[in-house]
């Protein structure tokens, strides 16, 4: 291992190289100093050029940081990642057809790094079938110039699978907390482990160079061996950034690092608005011991609701980044978690998800159509990408999609628990046909998956004939406020129910007592209750 500065480290990158970058979302273990140094070199020298960037998770602050440092014509030729939402300048280049842009499932890319590390031919999985990632529907391409050749449809033992091809990695940027003089790296202060080990192994197998950014150096032989996440035998260069923040928003949270558990009172109580109404209705699907995933966006509010209702310990909330238990963070820090029971490497979390480990998945939506298809990846002139959405939605036993009924400046109130719409959104989110299929309603019906679509004024389910309206909020006019605001007419349940009035009132719902009623009366509660009903079904 050799210690260098960030500017010295990026000198080893050549034009045409493939760059693998670790980290997650809003600065979680993102090697920010290295990405910034690469940008400085390109702006000063016009080199390197035509880089292929690969990173399983979207990276950035939604402005200029993270992958945004790479958003220059000539610097990038191709980018393959889970999402562009964190780096809108990358999305702009893809929309303008100035780079080859791809967004593939975060879990598939995460697991693919492990396949690459072992020298296996690639990743064979059902994840992505019948979505825009399927080569029959575009192969994950987000720019016209991008070839449809990264994902293949194959038939194996009479069943359809997708085959994700591997990459030959030249350079790898990773991040940890501490490195010793031999290059052994620990991640004790990080909010996320990711696939750092697999990425380093994959790079070394290709004969590439592994560069790790850390906050501090330690003497040889002083790091606890069991805490080493990246062995020194895999590390070529180390740079030290003493002012390294834990995320782009948080300098350091001991709870994110797993050093302590914070009081539930430290977790924000959401104001009574549409986001909280949606999160509360979704939380009514919880049951004792339920293993859940909370996606980004409005679904992260379920953690705040669970904390306010004192039911965090009655269920197990997780996120795809590898956090199990506790309260997943929201907003710019989404991907971190507080009070978690375990932090595991991201590929193994997706193994658990793909294997059917989730009882409930709470995910956001941008568009829904009559078939029950959902789009979160490309809409309204924006490229977002799926992140972990496809792995999660395709494999959970029950999926609860959460989002506002319309898009735009919605202004609502709930006097006495009755919905009052002062101003509705300008754009409908229930469309005749979604722009991209990120979740296939037809494929879900074939597998008898339970699917709900929760908004602040209506709840739908996936039925045999497509979308069916099953609940409506008190005070909402069925025709004027719901059906007239949709791009198609859904089936309406013969017994159309009213949404639970409690979710529109300022006081807590009392979920703890209701979940306790669902728990077994003798012996410890099971870790998992198959086919257990949520509160809303009682």
Please explain how this structure is put together.
It contains twelve helices and 35 strands. The chain has 538 residues and is α/β, with parallel strands linked by helices. It folds into two domains: 239 residues, Glutaconate Coenzyme A-transferase; 217 residues, Glutaconate Coenzyme A-transferase (3-Layer(aba) Sandwich). Strands 21-18-17-16-22-27-32-33-34-35 form a ten-stranded mixed beta sheet. Strands 1-15-12-9-2-3-4-5 form an eight-stranded parallel beta sheet, sandwiched between helices. Strands 13-10-11-14 form a four-stranded mixed beta sheet. The radius of gyration is 23 Å and the shape is globular. About 2% of the residues have low confidence.
Topology:
Elements: E1 2-3, H1 6-9, E2 18-21, H2 32-45, E3 51-55, E4 76-81, H3 88-95, E5 100-103, H4 106-118, E6 123-125, E7 151-156, E8 159-164, E9 171-175, E10 178-180, E11 185-186, H5 196-205, E12 209-214, E13 216-218, E14 228-230, E15 237-240, H6 274-283, E16 291-294, H7 301-308, E17 316-319, E18 323-324, E19 327-328, E20 337-338, E21 342-343, H8 346-354, E22 360-364, E23 367-368, E24 374-375, E25 378-379, E26 382-383, H9 389-395, E27 398-402, E28 406-407, E29 411-413, E30 420-423, E31 427-428, H10 441-446, E32 450-454, E33 458-463, E34 466-472, H11 478-482, E35 491-498, H12 511-518
Parallel strand pairs: 1-15, 2-3, 2-9, 3-4, 4-5, 9-12, 10-13, 12-15, 16-17, 16-22, 22-27, 27-32, 34-35
Antiparallel strand pairs: 6-8, 7-8, 10-11, 11-14, 17-18, 18-21, 19-20, 23-24, 25-26, 28-31, 29-30, 32-33, 33-34
